[in-house]
């Protein structure tokens, strides 16, 4: 199954109009929420208690995030710099993901944004992770393109089991320290990053196959097949032929488009 595209000339005017529309909707909604909160509480103090608390990270209580241990060990005069570096991760991936996915795949863009926010937010919870994991069945057709799903699943299960164990050893038994707990936290977040990047890779690979087909093509337009270098060298020794000649004689396997529809 191969997707056919009709050439379209994109106009920058329509793009900026699209950006302006949604920016206006976002800012207008935010303004309404802030004004309603002010009328409800009668003070602007809630801004520093809600938005300022999330951005400045004053509470370093241990959690499953990346912030608490790093900022607890950091020199105070470096705090502002690394605070900006850490917080920008939540917004840094928005623009490239939106450019790539917003036009044709807004639901997958929403999934990627939820996952990125869950990983890099200052005070993450298990509920944040459960939210984007609950959406994975929507992309069950990507399973055949995933590369590290077994490894990531095992790591996530192991970390979920070790979190309460190391917490008990650190806080209650006193036989462990914060390094043990934060090591599992790092591994847990690395596994989430691998999971999200693996799904993004699988999504892009499926899109590539839908556009260009399952197989590569040579310069003359005929279909080409990738074979291992060792196979070429072995066949060359046996047959005395050049690698380019051998590559053109390899039989192409039957197509298997399962999962591409």
TrEMBL record:
Keywords: Endoplasmic reticulum, GPI-anchor biosynthesis, Membrane, Transmembrane, Transmembrane helix. GO terms for cellular component: GPI-anchor transamidase complex. It comes from the Eukaryota. It is found in: Endoplasmic reticulum membrane. Belongs to the PIGU family. This is Phosphatidylinositol glycan anchor biosynthesis class U protein. The chain crosses the membrane at residues 12-40, 46-71, 78-95, 107-133, 145-167, 179-201. Pathway: Glycolipid biosynthesis; glycosylphosphatidylinositol-anchor biosynthesis. GO terms for biological process: attachment of GPI anchor to protein; GPI anchor biosynthetic process. InterPro entries: PIG-U. It is a multi-pass membrane protein. The lineage of its organism: Eukaryota, Metazoa, Chordata, Craniata, Vertebrata. Pfam families: PIG-U.
């Amino acid at each position: 199954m191969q997707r056919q595209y009709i050439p379209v000339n994109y106009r920058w005017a329509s793009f900026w109009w699209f950006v302006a529309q949604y920016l206006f909707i976002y800012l207008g909604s935010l303004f309404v929420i802030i004004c309603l909160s002010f009328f409800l509480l009668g003070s602007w103090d809630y801004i520093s208690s809600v938005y300022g608390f999330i951005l400045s990270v004053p509470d370093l209580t241990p959690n499953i995030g990346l912030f608490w241990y790093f900022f607890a060990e950091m020199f105070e005069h470096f705090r502002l710099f690394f605070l900006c570096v850490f917080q920008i991760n939540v917004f840094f991936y928005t623009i490239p993901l939106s450019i790539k996915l917003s036009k044709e795949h807004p639901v997958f863009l929403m999934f990627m944004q939820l996952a990125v926010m869950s990983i890099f937010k200052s005070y993450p919870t298990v509920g944040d992770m459960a939210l984007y994991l609950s959406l994975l069945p929507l992309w069950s057709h990507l399973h055949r393109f995933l590369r590290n799903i077994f490894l990531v699943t095992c790591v996530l299960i192991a970390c979920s089991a070790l979190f309460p164990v190391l917490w008990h050893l650190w806080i209650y038994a006193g036989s462990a320290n914060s390094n043990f707990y934060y090591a599992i936290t790092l591994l847990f977040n690395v596994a989430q990053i691998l999971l999200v990047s693996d799904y993004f890779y699988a999504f892009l690979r499926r899109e590539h196959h839908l556009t260009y087909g399952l197989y590569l093509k040579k310069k003359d337009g005929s279909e080409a097949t990738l074979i291992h270098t060792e196979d070429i060298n072995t066949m060359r020794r046996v047959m005395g032929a050049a690698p380019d000649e051998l590559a053109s004689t390899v039989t192409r396997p039957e197509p298997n488009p399962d999962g591409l529809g």
